[in-house]
Sequence to fold (174 residues):
Amino acid sequence: MKKDTQQLLRHWQEAVPNDRLAHLVRDTARAYTRALQARLAQHQVPFGHWAFLRILWHADGLTQRELSARAGVMEPTTFAAMKAMEALGYIERRQSPENKKNMYIYLTAAGRALQKKLVPLAEQTNQISTQGLSAAQVQSTREVLLKLLENLAADERQWSDPLCTHFKPPGPPI
Fold:
């Protein structure tokens, strides 16, 4: 059963207030997703298209493979999303005359225009989530999350190092 945000909050406040940090981060990300998803739906934009649009607003003309890598999804997922986004008139796929093998993705005027409608919705979601927090608390949260990401990236590098033959936890679990 999928938990709504109210259930997640009660779970953390009452049932497991000291559960693992990873679970809290995951549930918070889910709540962010739900909040933005509801806003995007008002404009008939599926949440699955959001990441692709954000990438293309900053780097138009990527191959489907590059877009997959930047979005962190498998190529078949990107292919399906691009077909749907093309049908909606948000993107067009083109082959380069020099390289017929790769398909390049370009925003249409309609896809580009979505930026002015959708980015404020994401900003609103972030503003709602930080209500009641000082600027210093928001900055501290950002620093903590970036440090967590940095630590996990270092751990991933260790695991991907072919010379790594064992794993040594850095300390007691949080």
Remarks:
- The chain has a mean pLDDT of 87.
